[in-house]
What we know:
Blueprint: H1 40-49, H2 52-63, H3 67-80, E1 88-94, H4 100-113, E2 118-123, E3 150-152, H5 161-177, E4 182-188, H6 193-198, E5 203-209, H7 221-226, E6 229-233, H8 240-255, E7 267-270, H9 279-296, H10 298-325, H11 327-341, H12 347-360
This protein binds guanosine-5'-diphosphate.
Guanosine-5'-diphosphate binds next to helix 4.
Amino acid sequence: xxxxENDKEYKGLQVNSGVAQPPSVNPYxxxxxxxxxxxxxxxxxxxxxxxxxxxxxxxxxxxSLLPEHYAKAQEVIEKCLPYSGKxxxxxxxxxxxxxxxxxxxxxxxxxxxxxxxxxxLAIDPSxxxxxxxxxxxxxxxxRLSVHPNxxxxxxxxxxxxxxxxxxxxxxxxxxxxxxxxxxxxxxVGVGQSETAVHSMVDFxxxxxxxxxxxxxxxxxxxxxxxxxxxxxxxxxxxxIQRAQLAQAQFRSALHLFPPTASGWQPEVLTYSxxxxxxxxxxxDMIDRYFAFVEANGYFETRRRQQAxxxxxxxxxxxxxxxxxxxxxxxxMLEQLExxxxxxxxxxxxxxxxxxxxxxxxxx
Length: 363
Ligand code: GDP
């Protein structure tokens, strides 16, 4: 070719053949050894032995969104079920800043000082929006998180409240099978999630604050009605009097509520999570509650009602997700929605069209 570089007389810069470039894949790299996926019986065996790593894996399986994990998780739960049920399930709620994490840390240590094991779970349906779970985060419970007999698990993050709650409920089964005899389920006292927590615990504890001026307005009446015990936190320093005043107000407010199904009169106590004042008293109340409902049979009644409730809830959730996950239905819904938005179709007709097309398949 006629090019100056090809000329024999060329004196300019020349391109050397250079050093061979290394291959883009390191030939010396050892193949990544993936942890073998344990079988259902390996997981169950590990859980029953109280192996925390296996328990974690089982919970991860329960929380997984993959359909193949769902079936496996159900098998694990089914096998753990006969070993579950023997724990005190305690729900803890309170508005953000009420001192839930501080209190759970101290309550937890108090419970553990009496022996046994404690699992702290959470239901936080908002965690999907905030992109990560706030509740049950280990860093919030400094001492519990390093305690060998504590298992802390943040809220399952993805999905509807129903889905998140179901996963937490299944996690309770796994924890109980692993020998956890105390289970705390934490939630934020701002909305729907209390009902979900209430429907899976034996005792529902509401953490309140004094001195905010809206003692009774700050929390929805419905949540107060669910509470088996109300504890007013931060009863320390110059807040003690205000806490006592709030205590009196809550006590008189509770008297106006209809009697509880358990026959138990919810108590109101003050304490300080931060300064660890009044903690044994709070736990005495909880002990008294358990003695009371175990004696009058309400403990069993409530558990049975909850089992039925969760069967129905699971059916609801599965039906709904089967419907919405269907690609043909999803396409159809999009079209129907457009017609509804353009006022060409009523919401009800649209809904029945979609449902008819779904149900027709099973005919
Ligand atoms: P959460 O949002 O409900 O989990 O509340 P935190 O446990 O994070 O507590 C919120 C704030 O209240 C933190 O700054 C705590 O240090 C403080 N706090 C918690 N418990 C007490 C208490 O018993 N007394 C006082 N004075 N402050 C507390």
